Amino acid sequence: xxxxxxxxWTVIVPIIAAAxxxxxxxxxxxxxxxIGAILLFSSVMAAVHHAEVVAHKVGEPYGxxxxxxxxxxxxxxxxxxxxxxxGEGALxxxxxxxxxxxxxxLNGILGICIWVGSRKYxxxxxxxxxxTTYLVSLVAILVLTLILPNYTSTEHGPFYSEAQLVFVALxxxxxxxxxxMFQNVRHRNYFVTEDHDQTAHEADPPSILxxxxxxxxxxxxxxxxxxxxxxxxxxxxxxxxxxxxPHELVGVIxxxxxxxxxxxxxxxxxxxxxxxxxxxxxxxxxLASVGLTIPAISVVCLIYDIPFVLGLDMKSIILLAxxxxxxxxxxxxxxxxxxxxxxxxxxxxxxxxxxxVP
Length: 358
Known about the structure:
Layout: H1 9-22, H2 30-58, H3 62-85, H4 93-121, E1 124-125, H5 128-147, H6 162-186, H7 194-200, H8 208-242, H9 248-271, H10 275-291, H11 293-304, H12 314-330, E2 335-336, H13 338-356
Antiparallel strand pairs: 1-2
């Protein structure tokens, strides 16, 4: 690796952001909060770059799996840190963030990718079996984690008992683990198109040294984003309170920050006529977000005896069902058009609007 590559902004920004946080410069003054926010988003952009370098080296579909797991690490870190702090909304923070992430991915990321790609290429083609596989796994996990808790009788309310929580965590891990084997071993051809392979080989894969450096910097970026977002959370909560919005909006904002790297990578793939990669990134991230986050949160809550709510209210269940149904219909034929993207973006707007104005 050349020395000049080490002074690239994607190397310098996360180091500056880490120092900014570790030396205590992030506080409640307006100026430092603005600087912190700029460093936060810059670190997110740097994470996109380093994740794409690693993904390019390992190839598809392993690259999209790495990106999805990175996003899950971000999400789990933020949720656990907020829940352990015991602040307002600690009971529902896991549910609100996971639900917000799923809604943003299904309606926002996929909607923008389909709309942008279809406006540029009219129609984009992908392997329908891949979308079906993602959605079968995702729907099962969503029902088990976000809907079924409302209808169990061992615990009153939208809670799981300890035994139920262990079972659901194991069920999520079983589904996700089986999906990974399906995706990367038995039916890898469902998730990789010939056009994508040709495009991917236009540029030579990075060297092993560059890949290892990017992996190290990716870890730094992920840690920086978690801690910077946690440090800025009081500012976000004050903003939400100042506009009179419910506390659930905090989960939406944090989910947006966490999903920004994945979203930008997916949109870039759609613009390059690689809609299969966009679907792999979007649906893979949604599946990992629920299938890995809920078990991780369950373990922490069982260890520290922290109660938390999983079941959604009826309004959220309706919006979730609508989103899943529209995505299923949009991806059922193996090709996209801009109408599908428009409908999904309207669904996202309806979700965010009903969060702000319940």
